[in-house]
Design a protein that fits this description.
The complex is a heterodimer of chains A (197) and B (341).
Chain A lengths: L19 E7 L2 E7 L5 H8 L18 E4 L2 E4 L12 E3 L12 H8 L9 H14 L5 H7 L10 H15 L26
Parallel strand pairs in A: 1-5
Antiparallel strand pairs in A: 1-2, 3-4, 3-5
Chain B lengths: L4 E4 L3 H10 L3 E4 L5 H6 L7 E4 L8 E3 L5 E4 L4 H5 L2 H6 L1 H8 L4 H6 L2 H6 L5 H4 L41 H7 L3 E6 L2 E6 H4 L18 E7 L7 E7 L10 E10 L2 E10 L6 E2 L1 H7 L6 H11 L11 H19 L15
Parallel strand pairs in B: 1-3, 2-3
Antiparallel strand pairs in B: 4-5, 5-8, 6-7, 6-8, 9-10, 10-11, 11-12
Helix pairs in contact in B: 5-9, 11-12, 12-13
The chains are: A alpha+beta (197), B alpha+beta (341).
Bound molecules: flavin-adenine dinucleotide (FAD), iron/sulfur cluster (SF4) and FE2/S2 (inorganic) cluster (2 copies).
Protein name (chain A): 2Fe-2S iron-sulfur cluster-binding protein
InterPro entries (chain A): 2Fe-2S-bd, 2Fe-2S-bd_dom_sf, 2Fe-2S_ferredoxin-like_sf, 2Fe-2S_ferredoxin-type, 2Fe2S_fd_BS, Aldehyde_Oxdr_Iron-Sulfur, Beta-grasp_dom_sf
Pfam family, one (chain A): Fer2
């Protein structure tokens, strides 16, 4: 038998950094995922937990489709790593209401026809919930400014605004409108009585 | 994104050691700039050091009357901190003029100083860019440079520093506190960011491995007469083409003290101390403001698509100073008649 000399094997490809266990509390439920550190929170939700309500639009922090609440504060899950969120409480659109009992914002979005294709809607609703939690926006101008992190390609803005205003209204936070933009003076932030209906 | 390892640091010394122990490593605050750049392959660190557990997210009064912003305090928590709203409303306005509510909830004060330019070519790996790839050339000079700088540029780079917050911090005489392999030190805000010169790859004067731990605001906050005026392509959620932080201390219409800094025009927040000196001792009138604006832009250089910024910046300076003045009810508003800068 003739001897076949074999060329040395090519070195194995550089090993990927190992995955690591990451504990996430999502919508009140604890999950431990074995994921690579470069997994964004958005990808962890969609690809590993099947929570596909949170949408990927731009993947660069520019559209707000991926908005979720972390400890009650709205963030863009596409620009955050899942490993950065151990110990925090994450709320997604799936956790805001149930099919039987929608959250006030979810109901208001339906009542006001605040979407067309619906792709931006979970992000809009989570963002609006974050806005309500912050308690800073009261007027239409303030709501517009503080909802500007959510883009709607269908241009449903005016109905989104009226949906958010209705919920704010019911919470009793409305004061009369004032222009509010960089350069203008800050609005009075004191909560006032809701207008009588 | 390339692959990398991640550790969550729990102490400043540990973070600094971890950084020194790994070549090509990076600190990560909110991640809003770094993760974006990693997705574009502009940044390719092989190890990330999380800073969120360092306990540097507090905002505290200082014994000398100032205020210390922890480097890991978020931009949103900073803007809406009661002491900032009350004593440093210029900073509140500048922060709220930037990015979006979601991004401000993630972005940290230290990370805001360190964010990189928004020059299109810096993000585009297919084009030469001295900042990304030293020696490769500058595509913005002679290219599409609408967002680029008009002051303090070099033939190597005409990029701008994109932050709004930093323009207010520059105007307010902030001190940057850092900790590094050689211990702690402080850097005056005006010395923190640098001009591009022959080394546009360096945005600032931090030494390798140094970590920003806090920002100290001096007591004087100009809370009575101030304006942060930001001009951009849409009214929200866009970077500044030109922005102006103006702060005045007035006695009637007499200017006792003044601060003036510009954003969107240079490789660093552009504070002009000569212009401030020109203002002090003068009456707050549009004529004065026009003279000062002309002086600030005296050596400005346009590159074609961004040449409009020279006139825009002049008008923005006049308007911001006027807005700052008019916040004071006592002044003689006749001084502003026929003034539509
Ligand atoms: C869509 C979009 C729009 C935006 N619009 C605006 C705008 O209009 N105005 C504006 O001002 N900004 C804007 N930004 C930028 C935003 O403000 C910055 O991305 C943010 O401030 C960076 O902070 P961070 O904590 O997320 O930084 P990271 O992304 O975590 O870090 C940025 C850099 O800083 C380094 N770093 C972080 N913390 C420290 C530290 N403590 N010490 C030393 N180094 C550190 C990191 O290594 C990295 O190199 C926008 C961003 C996006 C994505
Ligand atoms: S201006 Fe600076 S960042 Fe932009 S292409 Fe030229 S070198 Fe690169
Ligand atoms: S997908 Fe996150 S902001 Fe667009
Ligand atoms: S409803 Fe279609 S993008 Fe907003």
């Amino acid at each position: 038998m003739s001897q076949v000399t074999q060329a040395p094997l090519a070195p194995p490809p550089v090993a990927l950094a190992p995955t690591q266990p990451v504990s996430l509390n999502i919508n009140g439920q604890a999950h431990t995922l074995q994921i690579a550190p470069w997994t964004t929170l958005l990808d962890a939700l969609r690809e590993y937990l099947d929570l596909t309500g949170t949408k990927k639009g731009c993947d660069h922090g520019q559209c707000g489709a991926c908005t979720v609440l972390v400890d009650g504060k709205r963030i863009n899950s596409c620009l955050s790593l899942a490993v950065m969120h151990e110990d925090s409480h994450i709320q997604t659109i799936e956790g805001l209401g149930t099919e039987d009992k929608l959250s006030p914002l979810q109901q208001a979005f339906i009542d006001h026809d605040a979407f067309q294709c619906g792709y931006c809607t979970p992000g809009q609703i989570c963002s609006a919930q974050g806005l309500i939690n912050e308690g800073k926006a009261k007027t239409e101008a303030e709501v517009r400014e503080l909802m500007s992190g959510n883009i709607c390609r269908c241009g449903a803005y005016s109905n989104i605004l009226s949906a958010v205003m209705e919920v704010l209204n019911n919470e009793g936070l409305i004061i009369e409108d004032k222009a509010w933009s960089a350069g203008a003076t800050k609005p009075d932030m004191a909560p006032v009585e809701p207008p009588k209906k | 994104m390339n692959s990398f390892t991640f550790t969550q640091a729990t102490a400043v010394a540990g973070a600094v050691q971890d950084k020194a122990a790994h070549d090509d490593s990076a600190y990560i605050g909110g991640g809003t700039n770094l993760i974006d750049l990693m997705k574009e392959n502009v940044a390719r660190p092989t190890h990330l050091i999380g800073l969120k557990k360092l306990g540097l997210d507090t905002i505290e009064n200082l014994p000398d009357g100032g205020l210390r912003l922890g480097a890991l305090a978020t931009n949103a928590d900073t803007a809406w901190h009661p002491e900032v709203e009350k004593r440093y409303p210029l900073l509140n306005q500048a922060i709220l003029a930037g990015a979006s509510p979601q991004l401000r909830n993630m972005a940290t004060d230290g990370g805001n100083l360190m964010q990189r330019t928004r020059c299109y070519y810096f993000y585009d790996l297919a084009t030469p860019c001295n900042k990304r790839e030293p020696g490769s050339g500058c595509s913005a000079i002679g290219g599409y440079n609408r967002v680029c700088g008009i002051l303090g540029t070099s033939d190597q780079c005409i990029a701008t520093h994109p932050s709004d917050m930093c323009v207010a911090l520059a105007a307010l005489n902030t001190t940057v506190r850092v900790s590094g392999p050689n211990g702690e030190r402080t850097i005056k805000f005006e010395d923190f960011h640098r001009l591009p010169g022959d080394h546009p790859e360096r945005d600032n004067t931090l030494e390798p491995g140094e970590l920003i731990t806090g920002l100290d605001l001096p007591e004087k906050g100009f809370s009575k007469n101030f304006s942060y005026l930001k001009l951009r392509d849409r009214t929200s959620y866009a970077f500044a083409l030109v922005s102006v932080a103006a702060a005045l201390e007035l006695e009637g219409t007499l200017i006792k003290d003044a601060r003036l800094a510009l954003g969107g025009v240079a490789h660093k927040p552009w504070r002009d101390k000569e212009a401030e000196t020109m203002l002090i001792g003068q009456r707050a009138t549009v004529d004065t403001f026009r003279r000062v604006a002309a002086k600030v832009l005296e050596n400005a250089k346009g590159y074609g698509a961004n040449t409009f910024k020279i006139e825009l910046a002049k008008r923005a300076i006049v308007r911001a100073l006027k807005q700052a003045t008019e916040m004071n009810q006592e002044i003689d508003t006749n001084a502003f008649q026929n003034s539509n800068p």
